[in-house]
Amino acid sequence: MLIALMPGDGIGPEVVAEARQVLEAVAGAGLRFEEAPVGAAGYRAEGHPLPPATLDLARRADAILFGAVGDPACDGLERALRPEQAILGLRKHLELFANLRPAKLYPELAAASALRPDIAAAIDLVIVRETNGDVYFGEKGLRTTPAGRRQGYDVMSYDEDEVTRIARVGFETARARRGRLCSVDKANVLETSQLWRDVVSALAADYPDVALSHMYVDNAAMQLVRDPGQFDVIVTGNLFGDILSDQASMCAGSIGMLPSATLDRAGKGLYEPIHGSAPDIAGQDKANPLATILSAAMMLRYSLGDPASADRIERAVAAALAAGHRTADLGGATGTRAMGEAVRAAL
Ligand code: ATP
Ligand code: MG
User: Fold this and answer.
1) For NAD(+), which residues are the binding ones (predicted)?
2) In whole angstroms, what is the distance from residue 215 CA to residue 87 CA?
3) pLDDT tier at 254 (50, 70, 90 boundaries)?
4) How many CB atoms lie within 10 A of CB 75?
5) The predicted structure's pLDDT at residue 33
6) Which ligand neighbours the alpha carbon of 278 most closely?
7) What is each CA distance from 12 to 105, 161, 230, 278, in whole angstroms?
8) CATH classification of 1-102+254-347 is 3.40.718.10, yes or no?
9) This prediction's pTM
10) What ipTM, to 2 d.p.?
11) Contact by Cβ (8 Å): 317, 46
């Protein structure tokens, strides 16, 4: 298996280095690694945030471990050359349409949640968000109304194939977990959502082992805070998923803890922490590497067919926290390298 390493900018190289060593420790000889510059690092090395050789590596690899992109020094560049374009380009070129974000609270970190500890303790869910369609990619523009007022518009649309492919990821993710799928839409108001609901409901016949429910997005936002323990897997569109996944992540604790995966139709994926390049702490051995290490665990589970090693990594992270290791974002003084070492020692 070929793993593409794209450390990127800021703390990206520090956290990716720790995750790579964890992957080597659990899956060793079965993995080959190749590294390529991306983001500001790509721009400096090759004149583009997503250099052709980096995109080629992404295409050849079985999975991509991505750090973070972003560098204040690039703020003045034209949009197409900014570091953030790298991740958008990878999603588009590789058709990575399914973004999976687990939100789980480690009991040791209950104090870090935005919720009351007894409510937060029950969070263990995955949001499956569609990332190639919806209002972000529909027709958009600015026009003038007959009355002379400026009017902005963004068209929301999904065709049934787009809904089917993301819904299948939702059903399959639920099947591999606790078997419950909640589809979130706004079918009482939106035509797009009515189609979404019809398509998801029709697919349920293929997954008799999964219990399907539907919820309006406004209610889902409330329920995530009121009683997050009721959710196993949530599947939703690009806009609703964008909002709900940020909400769920803050319920579950520090930004330095949360991994993500973005998958294509064949199960190939890009794995990255949800945090950014954190230039304020870059190069100081302060970054929490756990989000990236947990992203590597997701890679083993979803792209490399090795869920047992994924479980091992997740248990080792819990053990390192139970042993008292805390990086600065979790209120401690453990360094990036020492945290990576603590996880490897616990494997
Ligand atoms: P982006 O636009 O790239 O998502 P951002 O502006 O949202 O970036 P981050 O880079 O995610 O910001 O950083 C937000 C804050 O969280 C910063 O203060 C940063 O130091 C902190 N932070 C982010 N990631 C980590 C981490 N892994 N460990 C510790 N602190 C972190
Ligand atoms: Mg951010």
Assistant:
1) 276-288
2) 30
3) confident
4) 9
5) 97
6) 1
7) 23, 35, 34, 9
8) yes
9) 0.90
10) 0.94
11) no
Question: What does the DSSP assignment read for 278-299?
Answer: -GGGTTTT-S--HHHHHHHHHH
CA dist 261 and 270 (Å) reads: 6
**Paired strand residues for 100:** 128, 261
Count the Cβ atoms, other than its own, within 10 Å of residue 315.
14
What is the model's pLDDT at position 311? 95
* 3-class state of residue 322 by DSSP: helix
Among 9, 134, 242, 306, the one annotated catalytic? 242
- As given in the structure block, the two tokens for residue 277 are 């390049």
Predicted confidence at residue 79, as pLDDT, reads 87
Residue with tokens 């999603």: 91
Compute CA 329 distance to the chain's CA centroid, rounded to the nearest angstrom: 19
- For 347, the token pair is 């494997």
Cβ neighbours of 204 (radius 10 Å): 15
Q: How, if at all, do strands 269-273 and 180-185 pair?
A: unpaired
- Determine the Cα–Cα distance for residues 299 and 286; give it in Å rounded to an integer: 24
CA 161–ligand 2 middle distance (angstroms): 30
For a ligand 1 pocket test, name from 255, 286, 325, 330 the mutation site with the most ligand atoms within 8 angstroms of its C-beta: 255
Residue 120: per-residue pLDDT: 87
Residue type, 112: A
CB atoms within 5 A of ion ligand 2 belong to 276
Q: For CATH 3.40.718.10, list the domain ranges present in the chain.
A: 1-102+254-347, 114-251
Residue 253 half-sphere exposure, CB side, CA atoms within 13 Å? 27
- The 3-state secondary structure of 187-212, one letter per residue: CCCCHHHHHHHHHHHHHHHHCCCCEE
Return the CATH architecture of domain 114-251.
3-Layer(aba) Sandwich (3.40)
Cα separation, 102 vs 161, in Å, equals: 25
